[in-house]
Amino acid sequence: MFPESPLIQARALTKRFGSFVAVDGIDFDVAPGEAFGFLGPNGAGKTSTMRMIACMSPVSSGTLRILGMDPITDGPNIRRRIGLVPQEDTLDLEMTVLDNLLVYGRYFDLPRKVIRERARRLLDFAQLTDRANDKVDPLSGGLKRRLTIARSLISEPELLLLDEPTTGLDPQARHLLWDRLYRLKQQGVTLIITTHYMDEAEQLCDRLVVMDKGRIAAEGSPRELITRYSTREVLELRFRVDDHAPLAAQLAGLGERIETLPDRLLVYTDDGESAAKSVADRGLDPVASFVRRSSLEDVFLRLTGRTLVD
Amino acid sequence: MSTPTVLDRAADGAAGAAAGLRITPTWSLGSRRAMRLVERNGRVYFRMWVIFVSGFFEPLFYLLSISVGISKLAGPVAGPGGHLISYTAFVAPALMAVSSMNGAVMDATFGVFFKLKFAKVYDAVLATPMDSGDVALGEISWAVLRGGIYSCVFLVVMAGMGLVHSPWAALAVPVSLLEGFGFAAVAMATATYMRSWQDFDFVTLALMPMFLFSGTFYPLSVYPSGLRELVLATPLYQGVAVIRGLDLGSPTWSMAGHCLYLLVMSVAGLMVASRRLERLILK
Can you tell me the ipTM of this complex? Predict the structure, then answer.
């Protein structure tokens, strides 16, 4: 399947905390240069998987190979070649923006001169040059996130791990980050991203797995997943009723599948317009009716359910 | 590629997974990389040098108050070799041992706890090639450096006041570093068990009586037997005994025993601190 040997290979990878199974025997490969996503609700096991890949959490059972090495015996050598953007920023609040980069580079045993040069470029890349001598603590969430990403790149990693990189950011900050991550991908950096944002996964990931309750529920490119688990279009219908459930029966036969939500009905179909016409033909009169393209979100909700996780 | 190691150990109970599986070598006691953390702390303190300097004054003020006032009331006392010395000369080397202890304990408790629980500095550090042993050794080394600087400056002040009585006093410097290491290592290990800032009252509770009663201000002979053995067993007493003996020019073989005590304390503290960091962060 891959022209080169995989950068990461996991077989029956499992993580247990006491009797709780966070990751339940998952298999996956990540090829060099790929942008690979772990998509899933909270508690699906994404972060636990990420921490095992980052060599910051021991594998409970199964095998994990990163850059051809075993995290148990080669942790420091693997960590030398990967960059980690953790879910919560772990910036050094006692230091300035620039010092954060300079000191972090030293943890990788890099010479000061090299770090200084890279730090200058990374500040530019993260649009932080004019904040170089500011303290980190008062910076906004978006600036901190950009600094965390810049910091993770100081060692010029082959593999960049991003755990929910844009959670809590405003749209401007998210789009700037996506742009930066896209550039890194163009430069050949392998990206591994966990997210519960569908648009993020569609924007950034070549291939992804949907995780649910510690297992992999589906795997493929965003487009493949939509084709496999959803239809091309979705017709959303809203009626002037308190309960939409009884109306679902009257739509029977339309599209491949009908989903009943408290406030609307979703008709999964390859041709939304003609489905909408059939609704009118059946004498039904929705208050609102619109057709949209099927998204990863439909796949996600179908696979992981609509029940709130926590 | 080597053959895959299949680790398949059943997690028995909540502690099972954490106890059985590790990603740093057993008892990592740190490597040269530990110095990177010393660099980090140096950079932070470079901007907060006032705080750094302030830590030196407490023992210095004690010394001044004793030499200016208390020594006028207290007559000469018998030193380690039996000959009579001024009260200030008796107390000064003990205060040097105290300043090493204070300097080392401050960063290894408050500093480590803050970085571990709030600033999450070690979470970031352990995502790099550094391992838990490097972090423990780095933090302890920094604390020793701080305590060492305090005690060296203190020794210089003593010399200026005519309180250095023997060339043996030069050896007080490495001994104070060893003492600082022992204190810093145990203090850091302790800090990993702290739950909140309130727990630091216990640190004060341990240090204060040690400062007052470990033969700092009067010889051990005032204690009845029983109590004397208890004081003999305190870590500060080891530093006080050796540094005082060297400063007053009475080296004895028993000093090797005191140093061994401090060495054991250093290694044990380092091992526990390293293992605890791994438990807390690399889970």
Answer: 0.85
